[in-house]
Write a structure and sequence with these properties.
Elements: H1 6-9, H2 12-29, H3 34-38, H4 44-57, H5 72-88
Length: about 90
């Protein structure tokens, strides 16, 4: 039996969109990283679309953290948010 790709495991575009919507919501509510997204020029909907596009295509997008001076603590907080969303949706390690 062939293994599913991560994209397929996450539910393809619809599943990835749901994960990124919930993840962006968690980021915006996170006291460590929320101020970055609340003051971003990118609208919340554009941020979700960009993040979903990044995960669906694997291509570098505006959402990627390159060049925005993200600290190790901020990156950890973002990854924790994503992992919590994935756990809440039943994904395992």
């Amino acid at each position: 039996m062939a293994l599913k790709s991560l994209f397929e495991s996450w539910g393809r575009q619809d599943g990835v969109r749901t994960l990124t919507e919930k993840g962006v919501g968690k980021h915006r509510a996170n006291p460590l990283v929320g101020t970055r997204s609340q003051h971003a020029r990118t609208l919340k909907e554009e941020l979700k679309t960009s993040a979903a596009g990044f995960f669906c295509t694997g291509k570098d997008r505006l959402y990627a953290p390159a060049g925005i001076n993200v600290s190790a603590d901020e990156l950890t907080a973002v990854l924790d948010d994503v992992m919590n969303v994935m756990k809440s949706r039943g994904y395992r390690k």
